[in-house]
Amino acid sequence: MLSEKTKQIVKATAPVLKERGTEITSCFYKRMFSAHPELKNIFNMSRQQTGGQPKALAYTVLQAAENIDHLEALLPVVKQIGHKHKSLHVKPEHYPIVGYHLLEAIEIVLGDAASEDILQAWREAYDEIARVFIDVEQQMYDDDKKQAESWEGFKPFVVVEKHVESETMTSFYLKPADGTDLPVFSPGQYVSVRIKIPGDSHLSARQYSLSDAWNRDYYRISVKLEGEEDKPIGRVSNYLHEKMEVGGSLEVSVPAGDFTLTEQTNKPVYFISAGSGITPVMSMAKTLVARESNQKFTFIHAAKSAEHHAFREEAEQLISQNPAGRLLFLYSQDSENQGEHIINGRLNEDILKKVVQDQDGDFYVCGPLSFMKCVIEDLQNIGVPLENIHYESFASALEMQISN
C-alpha cells in the first residue's frame, strides 16, 4: 500500500506531467530501446516514429498520477491495455525494465526539479501500478491455459487464402502450421500478428480483429491498407497487402480483447461501425445469426464510398438469412443509390433517432475516434443509457474514456 505522503507527491506532479509528459516518454523510449533493442520486437516502432506511442503513454501516466489514491477507477482501462499486453506476450520481467528507464527519463527531463522525494515517490507508485497490470495480465494468461488448444506467446501460421474485400481492405485466412484445432474466441476479439519485414532488425507486431465467426480450422483477419509505402505508418499493412501471398507464413497470438458480444439475450442489438471498424462487427453479426434465435438486430455501417466498403455482400447475405435483421449503409461520398438500405451522407443524430427503436438494446460501436465520440454522444442524446453502449476504439483506451 502506498503511503499518504507518496500519493500526495505523485498527485502534485500531475501538472508537470501534463505539460512535459510526452517529452518524458519520448526520452524514456529512446533510452530503453538503446539499452534493450530486443524490446523493439514488442513495441510498434511506427507509432514511435509518428509520436503516437509516446503521447499515449504520457496520457496513461498522467491518468495514473491523477488517480493514484483510487487506482481501481482505472481498472477497465487496465484490462483493455492488459489484453493488448497479453497478445504481445508482455511478461512480469518486462516491468522492472520499463520502470527503471521511466524514472531515468523523469530525472533527465525534470533536472533539478526531480528531487529525491519525487523520484522515490514515483518508484513506489510505479511498483504499485505495475503490480496491478501484472496481476490482471496473469489472470488472462491463466485463463488461456484452461483451453486445451491454446498456446503461449506466438505460434506459426500459414496463409491459406487471400481475398480482396474493398479498395483498401484484404482478408487473410490463417491456419496453424502444425495443423491443430483453434481455441474458441469471443466475437469481437483480435490477435497480434508478427512478421519480419526484410531489412528490419526487429520483428513487427500488429493487432487485427478477427472478422469471422469462430471455427476450429482457421482465423480470418481483415487488414486495411494504411499510409504509403515510403512512410512509416502502414508499414506492416502495406507489406501484408503487397508481399504476403497464399503459402506465406507469419506468427499469431492467442485471441485477446474485451470488446465482445454478450451472451445471448432477448435484447435487440445494434451494430454501428465505420471504416475498418466493421471487422470485429462482422464476427459479432455472423455469430449472432448463427445462434438462430431470431434476436432482433440492426447493422449500420458508414464508409467513404461503395468502393471502400468491405463485406457489403456478406452483410447483405446475413440480413437475407435473418428476418429479424435490418441493414443501413451510409456513404460520405456521393454514389449511385443501389438499394433502399443505402443512403448518401454521414451518420448523425437525426438518422439514429429514426433507426433506433429500442433504447434499452445493446449497442456495439467501432471505428475511428471522431466517429466513435460522435455516435456515442448522439446515442445518449436520443435516450440510450451509456451502460448499454459497448465500444472499441483503435485509439488509446484512455483517450476514448466517455463520461456520463
Automatic annotation (TrEMBL):
SUPFAM superfamilies (UniProt xref): Ferredoxin reductase-like, C-terminal NADP-linked domain, Globin-like, Riboflavin synthase domain-like
Domain of life (superkingdom): Bacteria
Pfam families according to UniProt: FAD_binding_6, Globin, NAD_binding_1
Positions of the FAD-binding FR-type domain: 152-262
Cofactor: heme b
Keywords: Heme, Iron, Metal-binding, NAD, NADP, Oxidoreductase, Oxygen transport, Transport
EC number from the UniProt entry: 1.14.12.17
Enzyme class, spelled out: oxidoreductase
Gene Ontology terms for molecular function: nitric oxide dioxygenase NAD(P)H activity
Domain Globin stretches: 1-138
Catalytic reaction list: 2 nitric oxide + NADPH + 2 O2 = 2 nitrate + NADP(+) + H(+); 2 nitric oxide + NADH + 2 O2 = 2 nitrate + NAD(+) + H(+)
Family label: Belongs to the globin family.
PANTHER family: FLAVOHEMOPROTEIN (PTHR43396)
Name recorded for this polypeptide: nitric oxide dioxygenase
Source species: Bacillus changyiensis
Underlying gene: hmpA
